[in-house]
Design goal:
heterodimer, A: alpha+beta, PmbA/TldD fold, 3 domains, 6-stranded antiparallel beta sheet, 5-stranded mixed beta barrel, 9 helices, 17 strands, about 20% helix, B: about 500 residues, alpha+beta, 7-stranded mixed beta sheet, 6-stranded mixed beta sheet
Amino acid sequence: MTKDEKYSIAKWAMEHAVKNGAQQARVSIYNNNSSQIEVRDEKIDKLQESNRNGMQINLYVDNKYSSISTNRITNKEELGKFIEEAIAGTRYLAEDEFRTLPDPVRYYKGDGPDLKTLDPNFSSVDPQQKVKDAFELEKEVLGSDERIISVSTSYRDGMSGSVMMASNGFEGDSENTYYSLSASVSVTDGVARPRGGWYESSIFSDQLIRKDIGKKALKRAIDRLGQAKIASGKMPMIVENKMAGSSLGPLISALNGGSIQQKQSFLIDMKGEKIGSDLMSIVDDPFIVSGRGSRLFDSEGMATEKRSVVEKGILKTYYIDTYYAKKLEMEATSGSPTNLVFKPGEKDLEGLLADIDRGILVTGFNGGNSNGATGDFSFGIEGFLVEKGKLVQPVSEMNITGNFKQLWKDLVAVGSDVDLSRSWRLPSLVFDNVDFSGI
Amino acid sequence: MTLDRRNFIKTGGAAVAGTMVLPPLLKSCQNIQISPDVKSYLDHFEVTPEMLQKVIAEAMSKGGDYADLFFEHTLSNSLGLEDGKVNSANSNVDYGVGVRVLKGDQTGFAYTESTSLQDMLKVAKTAANIANDPVTFNQGELIEKTLPNYYKVSKKWENSTIEEKIPFVQKLNDRLFELDDKVTKARVFQRDETSYVMFYSSEGLLTCDYRPMATMGVVCVMEKDGTIENDYSARSMRQGFEFMDDAIVEELAQEAIKKTNFLFGAGKPKAGELPVVLGAGGSGILLHEAMGHPFEADFNRKGESIFSDKMGKSIAKDFINIVEDGTMENNRGSLNVDDEGNDVKKVYLVKDGVLESYLHDRISAKHYGVDPTGNGRRQSFRHVPLPRMRITYMENGPHTTEDLISSVDYGVYVDNFTNGQVKIGAGDFTFFVKSGTLIENGKLTMPIKDINIIGNGPQALADITMAAGDYQTATGTWTCGKGGQSVPVGMGLPSVLVKKLTVGGTSA
């Protein structure tokens, strides 16, 4: 479906809703095209293609609210009936004065910079090259070590496009592409069968890193052989950059307007207060060129802004959409983060480890959860015991347990090794005094 | 069950929405005999047996060993209550057909969101590319399979209205505030889903299934002396509108209040390896993570599972019997047929302590030369089938719950969980304990909360030293994720004692 076709259907649906009793309506239409090739045992294990379309409509009817979605969007007779029935159904709900579209002043008005999130050559990538990429990756490792029991490699790519229109004057569209290559290797020493994985991804086909992915996956698997749990105790925890998102995620969730209004946040009334150590500085930057989370407007159409989230440990902003802003009598920011950029430190991971007398480097989380209302957490981990700066033993089957309010105050070092391949640009992090349970 | 065309079209209006306006069937089938039941599904998807055969022929045109088509139309409706009012609703329609082609262990797959012959042929051609050895395909005779019915429904969701549903959602909120004045917030959710699926394979097999799902729950927030705690209760069954009644509202309200109240003053155990008594019911998450996933045959076929070389061997005490079943009446994990047209069997994974069977989909059953177990499941027409669990449970053991608890000097009793996961190859599995109780000198003492428990599958299975006779089936909203696909599952367990697992907590 072309962009113009999407706009045309969105406009029709929006006008149909307004004509049939909705005071306001917002319509989004998207499509995603993707392909996936998985290789195993020198054969294509799976070949998958996907072309998905969808539409979502938010209806505001006599101060009442509902949303509908469907993937049957081209038959106007059917779609029209769907909208009319939804409007009729919405009238049975309770009134909710806080439900409205955003103030049009906040809408993105066009004229933003080109964020370069689309590879214009997406449709001209040769399918044979995709297959070849996955096979080359397998070749890197297959037969290179006798402990290997299984190798899977995979190529994926996708393009998505969406348009959004709102009846009080918003119109916007966005397009994105991605490419990724990944490898998963299982090895055995006759006892356990640990698996290691690695991936690379890019917005542009010609920038995708294609080398050493298999080798890195193999190394990560072999490094896990002989893993065991060690004695419980309080120790410094070094979290590898690729895993740092797991320790930041629950804190970002606690900044959500809905969590705050529903009293399921441990950061209620903490704006302007100290929530972490001086080393904790995070900026939300929607405008990074080719950033994975870059965008000019949010899911409600509000223009994005660069914001400080945490500055030297002091909380600077919440993530509040239009609905919860009204309920909380606060100003709407945006309902969700874009790119989160953590201010890096001076040392790389090796440098951080060199300062550790005895601690655990966490390279993977395994389950666990946290209590949004209190900040209590407990997660399974795997990684390495670090002694005098050296990795001395792979560890697994251990838990960390604590509270996020304390954890971030115990952030004692920040790496220089920011992972740029994700929307959350995080370096490796070192936390002091973490409770590990093992034997 | 014949699909009532008129009612079906009426559906949407009754709910918030969720309608389908289908034009009258264009062609009727004259050459092939089919029952009215199947005819209603064919009509619904606007296809004829001849069209199915054409698409299969295209799918097999490059020399595939096997191909299947999976048609799905799903309507779902949900209601939300926040701050005392039923103030949001959602309806969703999803429609399409997936085409899969197999060549040995290899899979080609594509789907389309339209069931026009032209679109179906196009994706069949894409999926066919997994093979590269054109042959002539001889279409088999069409075989209709009559299915059992494990989810009897009194009143279909499409015949119920938003007006009828709202009072139950409101009542659940109101009961919560009546029961305890510490309640400060409640969020109630109700969701119903109706799926029509039709399956056709290159072997000529044609099956049709009507799959309802009902879910209701509440998140309860309480405040006491400046401390805020929250917990939730939820139920989910393959049922129609009869699922919603005053009894379930009362049960959910009481449970949410009880669970949230329990958290005030709860602490943490000492960190480390402890004996763990798992309470009957939801503790089935132990089986699901520690044994269920590693028993899935795809991991074993690839040699990736820690149980890969354990078939026929003793892996647990001889009183342990672990079952995988998809036939429990109205259970969330039940299916009348799996997503590959196979019968849904009750399978013993572990019988008298010995590993007897993996969970198979079509590919792995063929690989191992065994009968399919009916575990081939997919999230939707957009996904390929994988070996998946349905309802995983352990049968009763010889001990009593008191035996289990009194045998523990220092350990934990756990019975309220939120989530779990497993690393297949390493065997490390975890589950998160929302609440439980410390056991000291054989007695339940202090409440505990928010701790993760981690163990190793084969070791934990071997370490189940006692199992009681108090089996319960869990009735919560368990959903299992694997390979990017989510499917509803069930679980159950009698109380068991695991000699030691690593429990999250505080160091001395």
